[in-house]
Write a structure and sequence with these properties.
Length: 225
């Protein structure tokens, strides 16, 4: 039996409405070249954190961890059609400063094209400075319903990047950062086929769940055994 996590405070009906009336129409327009559809989100990669994966066998293997922790934060936008990822990175926490810097970078990269960015409601992304700059640059911000990471396609990319970091020991922070950057930069090149499989029109929406008990659900029509 496979299990998955369900955001405790999601509103499945709002998610479905957003998907049907905002996201899906944008996807169709993007496929026809009428708009540029981007998904924005940040990810924090911590060298010394738990990036260990699973190797099936009868013997447990141990991978050495780095002594101490260093953070590499990447804020990116994923192009739904091309799978290219444009980023701003920092060894500090992501703030509205980085979001504004990325918006300016996007405006230059897609100059003359109508740009729509799907993003969540993080405070540093939904502040006056970001909203004002986006309006000035002619970029439309499409804020997701609260607690809807399942609708933000770039979340799948960050999961993929972290899977590539697993089962290897990094003792140099520069090498750690370089590996992350190279994986991201390859998204629309050598990894394009993988990205096409990860990023498509279909998303997980939770309005078809039926309750087994107070905190366990399955999709309607799924076997309960």
């Amino acid at each position: 039996m496979k299990s998955g996590s369900l955001p405790a405070r999601l509103n499945a009906l709002l998610q479905r409405d957003y998907y049907n009336n905002v996201l899906l129409p944008l996807i169709e327009k993007a496929k026809k070249g009428k708009v540029v559809l981007l998904y924005l989100d940040g990810s924090h990669f911590v060298m010394g954190g738990d990036f260990l994966g699973y190797i099936y066998g009868t013997v447990r293997r141990y991978v050495k961890t780095f002594s101490g922790r260093k953070r590499y934060s990447v804020l990116g936008v994923l192009n739904f059609v091309t799978k290219k990822i444009t980023t701003i990175s920092t060894v500090e926490y992501i703030s509205a400063v980085e979001v504004c810097e990325l918006l300016r970078k996007v405006a230059i990269e897609y100059v003359g094209k109508p740009v729509h960015i799907v993003l969540d409601n993080a405070r540093y992304q939904k502040c006056a400075a970001v909203i004002s700059l986006a309006k000035e640059l002619g970029i439309v911000l499409e804020y997701l319903p609260a607690y809807s990471p399942n609708l933000n396609a770039i979340e799948r990319v960050w999961k993929y990047v972290k899977s590539r970091l697993r089962s290897k020991y990094y003792d140099q922070f520069d090498a750690f950062k370089k590996t992350i950057d190279s994986i991201i930069e390859d998204s629309d090149k050598g990894s394009k086929k993988i990205m096409d499989l990860l990023i498509g029109e279909r998303v997980q929406v939770f309005d078809n769940l039926i309750s087994i008990n107070d905190n366990t659900f399955v999709a309607n029509g799924a076997s309960l055994s």
